[in-house]
Amino acid sequence: MAEQPKTRLYVDSPLAEGQTVGLDHERAHFLRHVLRLDRGDPVAVFNGRDGEWLALIDGFGKGWCSLTVEAQRRPQDTVPDLWLVFAPLKKGRIDFVAEKATEMGVSRLCPVFTRRTDPNRVNMDRLRANAVEAAEQCERLTVPELADPVPLARALADWPEGRTLYLCAEAGIARPIAEAMRSAGSSPAALLVGPEGGFDQSELDEIAKLPFVVPVGLGPRILRADTAVVAALACWQSLAGDWTAGGGDTRPPFRSPADPAA
Amino acid sequence: MAEQPKTRLYVDSPLAEGQTVGLDHERAHFLRHVLRLDRGDPVAVFNGRDGEWLALIDGFGKGWCSLTVEAQRRPQDTVPDLWLVFAPLKKGRIDFVAEKATEMGVSRLCPVFTRRTDPNRVNMDRLRANAVEAAEQCERLTVPELADPVPLARALADWPEGRTLYLCAEAGIARPIAEAMRSAGSSPAALLVGPEGGFDQSELDEIAKLPFVVPVGLGPRILRADTAVVAALACWQSLAGDWTAGGGDTRPPFRSPADPAA
């Protein structure tokens, strides 16, 4: 048996024993010249559908690399049904949101334009690349879905029945976030975090009135939008999501190669 | 009465009515050339002891600016007694930790060197500058204290009686974080977050055995150290800290100038 894989890659191809997986230029370069891997070296791969598999490097060519899939390492699992609805932030901060939301187990990223949203477009390729990289790194077996960016009003008009939307409200009446989420159970949920500088006041008032919206408060300090994202996700995951499993061990069931126990 | 202050500055000077406050070159430049403020314009100031005050610009000189303190805007308050004990991360990630921990209401930042800590020194001036900037921005009335960086073993050997240390454990037996913190009450607490790549296994085992340590788990995904900081702080603040206040409004009692209600 080969040693532990030094890396973990998200791929599009179906994964099953004996399958061949081709990697593009960028990944081939990464394996060969950054990690200095060679023919026969192991790599972990996942595609969001078939679990995680051990694959061995078949060979490198000019701008490609091929792998042969050997054995399944983990069966497919999923993350809780939690959407993050967020106003796009400036470069850097939005990369951060994609990375952190993925680590925090969001199932779907929904960029929305609010009245005060600063960037008026979203680089979806970049958003996706950040989410993929974070999924590889945090040992998720899925990459969050990306919804097309739409105006917030439209996202709210089309809101699916039965999904609670927790509004991270920086003003107005709201419930303390832990109190609101403690009683949430495992029903579908979404968090809404506004733009830097906050929602427009009348916009905030309109959102708060919607029947599926629960305004929640994140304490007495003004949080940056990107901080609020991680903080609100942590509250939900720890109180209603997949950090709640009792019985001792809730840490990653399958550790990275750096862990001798893996 | 002058209009709302466009900025909020942390200063060292005592603050009381009629007091003069001098600002250094960097701040004078910021007020004059970035914000384009002039004589008579208002600025909010705080020093961590005397609350927040309205001050008016007296005048600018070559590399300085002086303010006259007018009236108190908010009485002094404090943050909960919560320390963050963390292994220094690379530049960028450690800036982020200082910013986020300040927003999240940490009272003391304690950098510690673990066995696998990558940077072997900490730029304390930079850490402090990031904490000050975040305090100004998030409307805190204090800047977190900075402890001198020490080896983790020494921080643990000198641990103060009565302070619980929540160990963010990426392996081994741990309680789900919300379950552990729900019963915490308002006693002094600290969170310990390890370096990128995690603690050394034997180090983790040793820490977990200490009588004041409660190992907590942050779910089934591998979080980056900087993500774990914000996530664990959010859990503590929302369950045992100052995000718990009932009675409707737990949001910032005093809003930034962008808010028309401020």
From TrEMBL, chains A, B:
Enzyme nomenclature, EC number: 2.1.1.193
Keywords: Cytoplasm, Methyltransferase, rRNA processing, S-adenosyl-L-methionine, Transferase
Gene3D superfamilies recorded: 3.40.1280.10, Hypothetical PUA domain-like, domain 1 (2.40.240.20)
Presence of the UniProt keyword Nucleotide-binding in the record: no
Keyword S-adenosyl-L-methionine: yes
GO molecular-function terms, A-Z: rRNA (uridine-N3-)-methyltransferase activity
Enzyme class: transferase
Biological process (GO), any one: rRNA base methylation
Coarse class of the protein's main subcellular location: cytoplasm
Subcellular location: Cytoplasm
One cellular-component annotation, GO: cytoplasm
Matches recorded under InterPro entries: Alpha/beta_knot_MTases (IPR029028), PUA-like_sf (IPR015947), RsmE (IPR006700), RsmE_MTase_dom (IPR046886), tRNA_m1G_MTases_N (IPR029026)
One family name in Pfam for this protein: Methyltrans_RNA
Residues covered by the Ribosomal RNA small subunit methyltransferase E methyltransferase domain: 81-237
Reactions accelerated catalytically: uridine(1498) in 16S rRNA + S-adenosyl-L-methionine = N(3)-methyluridine(1498) in 16S rRNA + S-adenosyl-L-homocysteine + H(+)
Signal peptide range: none
Similarity comment: Belongs to the RNA methyltransferase RsmE family.
Function: Specifically methylates the N3 position of the uracil ring of uridine 1498 (m3U1498) in 16S rRNA. Acts on the fully assembled 30S ribosomal subunit.
Protein name from the UniProt record: Ribosomal RNA small subunit methyltransferase E
Protein's organism: Azospirillum doebereinerae
Lineage of the species this protein comes from: Bacteria, Pseudomonadati, Pseudomonadota, Alphaproteobacteria, Rhodospirillales
